[in-house]
Amino acid sequence: MAKTRPGKRDLDTYTIKGTNKIVRAGDCVLMKPSENDKAPYVAHVEKIEADNRNNVKVRVRWYYRPEESIGGRRQFHGVKELFLSDHFDVQSANTIEGKCIVHSFKNYTKLENVGPEDYYCRFEYKAATGAFIPDRVAVYCKCEMPYNPDDLMVQCEECKDWYHPACMDMTIDQAKVLEHFTCSECASDYPKKPLSSSPMSNGKMLPKRQKR
Ligand SMILES: [Zn+2]
Ligand SMILES: [Zn+2]
Asked: Which residues surround ligand 1, an ion (CB under 5 A)?
């Protein structure tokens, strides 16, 4: 039999081995990590193709977990936080273990229940330089930290800023039963501090007060 010419065929779908889950371009998937004890890699599927021997390959754009970024995990990074990187790759479709959903930050904070397959992304990440887009992010509380959706915050009825209970000398349980909250600044007679803020420790992300 004559050999077929080497060539690639684009595929619309790929069914994950041992499941009936169908992956299409545009989906987010979990992929087998290089070491078994590591968390699965998360990728955005750009394209699915088969070679002439029917090996299925996926062209992916990697999501990075905070601990995989140059700056490392920081206090305001949530456990389900991912960065959309500029790092593309071609992988065997066999390494796909499951599907997941990467929500926008806003949609993620509105989820009533966060399942194991739910993640969120609020930053793009340049893998070579460690830079983030956007490089500025709104900060809250007197500690001037970006919002970590894993942490409970309470809103001041006066200034409408959000505060960590611990930064206001409260426990989480006290904060949960609060009916009204006024932050310590609004509760005092001192003039309000200006709405500017100082750069954060590594200078990568400059905080910005957001009026809401
Ligand atoms: Zn705080
Ligand atoms: Zn206040």
From this structure: 141, 143, 164, 167
Ligand nearest the Cα of residue 155 is 2
Alpha carbon of 165 to ligand 1 centroid (Å): 7
Architecture field, domain 8-133:
Roll (2.30)
pLDDT tens-place string over residues 26-43: 999 999 998 888 899 999
Beta-strand pair 41-50/28-31: antiparallel
CA of 185 to the centre of ligand 1 (A): 13
Confidence class for position 52, pLDDT limits 50, 70, 90:
confident
The answer to whether the beta carbons of residues 166 and 94 sit under 8 Å apart is no
The alpha carbon of 166 and the centre of ligand 1 are apart by a number of angstroms equal to 7
Spatial distance between the Cα atoms of 109 and 208, rounded to a whole number of angstroms: 20
Preceding amide of 134 cis, omega within 30: yes
CATH of 153-206, picked from 3.30.40, 3.10.20, 2.60.40, 1.10.1060, is 3.30.40
Average pLDDT score over residue span 179-190 = 85
Check residue 201 and give its pLDDT. Answer: 37
Ion ligand 2 neighbours, Cβ < 5 Å: 156, 158-159, 183, 186
How do 118-125 and 96-104 pair as beta strands? parallel
Segment 104-130 shows an average pLDDT of 96
Q: How far apart are CA 59 and CA 40, in angstroms?
A: 17
